[in-house]
Write a structure and sequence with these properties.
InterPro entries: YdhG-like. It is a single chain. The chain is α+β, with helices and mostly antiparallel strands. The chain has a single domain, classed as Aspartate Aminotransferase, domain 1 (Alpha-Beta Complex). The chain contains five helices and six strands, in the order ααββββααββα. It has a six-stranded antiparallel β-sheet. The chain is globular, with a radius of gyration of 14 Å.
């Protein structure tokens, strides 16, 4: 979590900071081969130089960004989760539980789907 220490320290609300750290720690523990990095002022994970998933915080939620392809692939599950979402990200309200099963599937999908990807973002 060293890569994200400064980012986490800037989250004012202690509960939001703890929740964000919990999610990032979970990703690091569940997917130890992913590389944690800060880019565009937000924590993200990469695999062989390609983006897998990113996170950002706002006053009301933790945003999860699996790229548009991941959003499309999991559209039904995202809708069933009850999470607010856009074309590019999922918003997990601070007072809502984290659906780690869905998060795991999205990360696994991106790792698999981008196995041969040689660019940071999908083309």
């Amino acid at each position: 979590m060293e890569e994200f220490a400064e980012y986490l320290s800037r989250i004012d609300n202690p509960q939001n900071r703890a929740r964000t750290e919990e999610v990032l720690s979970w990703v690091s523990g569940k997917f130890p081969s992913l590389i944690p990095k800060m880019a565009w002022n937000q924590p993200m994970y990469t695999d062989h130089g390609t983006f897998i998933i990113g996170f950002s915080v706002s006053k009301h939620h933790l945003a999860v960004a699996p790229e548009r392809a991941g959003m499309i692939h999991f559209a039904d599950e995202i809708a069933l989760s009850g999470y607010d979402h856009s074309k590019e990200l999922i918003r997990i309200r601070w007072d809502s539980p984290v659906d780690y099963s869905l998060l795991e599937k999205m990360i696994e999908f991106n790792v698999w789907d981008k196995a041969e990807c040689s660019t940071f973002w999908r083309k």
